[in-house]
């Protein structure tokens, strides 16, 4: 208990989640149709919604209104993000853990799980395998354990950036790990991390206490809720929030996430870069209570409502979900997905086609290859992107600039998406995928206005296809 009490918080840290208030908002009756449509219109004019307005959308369960909410989310996605979709892969570094999270295969008391931490050589091998598939963006995932301190995380990041195989390189390393203190965040920032993600899992206090025993590090609700505020204070202005859907009422968790986003925005002038909304999956030795499991329809609603509530925040959909569902909900405002993912430690070189529960944190719903997912995305009209330009040029934190600055997406995001896609097609794609991709690139170029930008892009694509030049961005 002493150690927990000594952990430092951000300046003026407060527990800004008021369960009674959020529950009260959820109990209020839905506004009439006109009221819901006004809220949808506000969101379509790209203004973030207030908590009360989000609660009103959550209360609107009339099928016609729900369909209008879905359609608005699709429209906002098209208008704000266009048809780009950023791709990444998770890389599990180690599964030792001091916590007892009731839902996770890595919890300390699980004797069935095979514990392992990648050593430097193994880490390089995993990264090399990922580069050979065409990945450019990774998220490193860690259990919570003293051996995975900030210094260790920073060293892993530097090792990853140092691996270069053929034309391959990892250009952005994000982190999903335990909350750090201020010095810890400074250290990982120096190593060049992209986003630091900490999911609050459930914003509902009583449920939080039930699934995270009080004697564990994660049992301290405020320390975890404050994690990304400390990150902001330490200069990490690129952070990701998330909730694990299935632990408590999904509507409450949506309000928790939106409250968290608004809190960061109000306090630090920068909202979260991304929101994640993982759904609880089967895991080694775990039979989660069914009471709050989120069915597909509710899952679609929560994604659409999050999209409308925080129009400028990136949304991450993971391979926990089945391919068919991923395909459908992507259109609701998702901006990033993982593909070709393996979450067994060492899984990119050692796993076969089957998943092994004793080696992974939970079971994945989509283990198709990156090439297959890319081909499907392009067939559906998306531009898969590996762009890392903003982060490399220091355009972080104010990620909303891409939406705020007129023409930003046209001038930077789309050309960069096309050149990173072209790298994939030249270096890693199967013939079938390359053929689909080249057609897409041509069609996108045909849609561009004539001028300097188009000429420059065409020149870059020619250099990528005929020389060893890579990593050309605006
Ligand atoms: N150990 C760190 C922590 O708990 O924050 C970092 C990463 S943890 C390995 C990554 C995330 O996986 C957790 O934050 C949780 O939301 C999610 N997770 C855990 N068990 C899960 C399960 N059974 N199904 C789906 N997601 C799960
Ligand atoms: Fe450990 Fe994270 Fe799993 Fe909890 S969710 S048991 S902290 S790895």
Give an account of the 3D structure.
- The chain has 474 residues and is of the alpha/beta class.
- It folds into two domains: 77-368, TIM Barrel (Alpha-Beta Barrel), CATH 3.20.20; 405-466, no CATH class.
- The protein has helices at 2-6, 19-27, 33-44, 51-59, 63-81, 120-133, 150-162, 182-190, 205-211, 221-225, 227-233, 250-268, 296-309, 323-329, 347-350, 370-379, 389-392, 401-404, 408-427, 431-447, 452-466; strands at 84-94, 137-142, 172-176, 193-197, 239-242, 274-276, 314-317, 336-338, 383-385.
- An eight-stranded parallel barrel has the order 1-2-3-4-5-6-7-8, surrounded by six helices.
- Helix 7 (150-162) links the parallel strand 2 and strand 3.
- Bound molecules: S-adenosylmethionine and iron/sulfur cluster (SF4).
Give me the oligomer status.
single chain
Bound molecules: S-adenosylmethionine, iron/sulfur cluster
Total helical segments? 21
Question: Which strand-content bin applies to the residues?
Answer: 5-15%
Distance between the termini: 51 Å
Radius of gyration: 22 Å
CATH architecture of the largest domain: Alpha-Beta Barrel
**What sequence of helices (H) and strands (E) makes up the elements?**
HHHHHEHEHEHEHHHEHEHEHEHHEHHHHH
- The CATH class designation of the largest domain is Alpha Beta
Shape: globular
Strand order of the largest sheet: 1-2-3-4-5-6-7-8
- The helix-and-strand class reads alpha/beta
Q: What's the CATH H-level homologous superfamily of the largest domain?
A: Aldolase class I
Main beta sheet: 8 strands, parallel, barrel
How many domains would you count in the coordinates?
A: 2
- The tally of beta strands, per DSSP, is 9
